[in-house]
Amino acid sequence: MLEFLKNLDRRYIFVLIALAVAIPLIMPLGLPLTPGPEAKSMYKVVDSLEPGSKLVLSFDYDPASKAELHPMSEAIIHHAFRKKLKVYAISLYPAGPSMATNAFANMSKDKEVVYGKDYINLGFYYGPNTGLNQVAVFSQDIVNAFPVDERKKPVGSYEIMSGFKSLKDADAVISISAGDPGVPAYVSVANAIHNIKVGAGVTAVSAPRFYAYMDSGQIFGLLGGLRGAAEYETLEKIKGKGLSGMDAQSMAHLVIILLIILSNIIYIIEKKD
Amino acid sequence: MFEELSIIFAGFLTLCIFSFLYKDNPFYRFAEHLYVGVSAGYMMSRGMADVMMKKLYTPLFNTPQGTAIDYSLIIPIVLGLFMILKLVPKVDWLSRWAIALVVGGTIGLSMTTRFKSDVIIQVRQTVEAIQSKEASLEKIKKTQYNIEADYSNELKMNSAHMEAINKLNQFLVWEAMALRSVVKSDGGVKNVSDDSLKGMQAGWLKAGEAKLEMDKQLKAMKTNLLGWQKLYSSAKVSIKNKQVALKEDVSKFFKNESASLSYNDLDMKSFKLGKELEKLQKLEVDLASSEVILKLRVKSLSDTITKVSSHFYPPAPNRTNLEAGLKAVQVLQKSLQQLMANFQSLEGDLASYVSASSYFSSKEKDPLLSVNTKSFFKGSESSMQSTFIKEDLQTGFSSTAYDLFKNLLIAFGVLTILVYFFFSTEHKGAVGVGAKVGIYFLMITFGASFGYTIMARISLLIGRMDFLIVDVSKAFTSMGL
Question: Does the ipTM surpass 0.90?
Answer without folding.
Answer: no
